[in-house]
Amino acid sequence: MTVAQLKALDAGGWFDPIYAGQRIPTLPEFFERYRGKMKWMLEIKDPGRVEERSVSLIRSNDVLAETITIGSNRESLEKVKSLDPEIQVGWTAFEPTEENVDGALAMGCHHIGLRHYFLTPEIVEGIKARGMLVRSTNVPNEAAMKHVIECGAIGMTINFPEKLASYLGEQEADNP
After folding, report:
1. CATH no. for residue 168?
2. What percent of the chain has pLDDT over 90?
């Protein structure tokens, strides 16, 4: 589809009538709306085709500090880093093998993304001790979510952010 066709779609009505008429923003529109308000992860889903444009948009929209470019394709992230070494990247490597951790460190990654079932506090601490953070991917349920937090990961990909917010709020209340 073209950008014009995508922008003509109703992106919210399917979810709830109160969101009817919501449009899909372009990346520059997203940056304009949220610049300075939050940090985000820009995931490269089409390796080999979008790296140069992504880097250009991050720079031209002055969102370097808010953006971490992530993806599971190592070559794609290496290209981003070669185009602009200041851009933070996070490699979704899935498994905490020595090869993956060494590769992420060599790339200068901000973090490495690992599957929740591979995480232990020792693995997370070992990676942190080497100068990189850990994020978890595809966390399927609350038990796994709690496990990821207990292991010390900095974040996770989930489909139930309200449960995460509630749990973190409870933890904060219990440990002021």
Report:
1. 3.20.20.190
2. 89
C-beta of residue 14 within 8 angstroms of C-beta of residue 29: no
Q: Which residue has the tokens 């140069």?
A: 52
Range of the domain at 140: 40-174
Quickly list DSSP for 122-147. Answer: HHHHHHHHTT-EEEEE---SHHHHHH
* Three-state SS letters, 96-117: CCHHHHHHHHHHCCCEEEEEHH
Cα angle 23, 28, 157; round to 5? 75
Q: Rounded to whole angstroms, how far apart are CA atoms 128 and 134? A: 7
Give the C-alpha separation, 96 to 113, whole Å.
Answer: 9
Q: Residues 115, 96: one domain? A: yes
At 76-98, the pLDDT tens digits run: 999 999 999 999 999 999 999 99
Helix axes 74-83, 51-60, angle to 10 degrees: 40
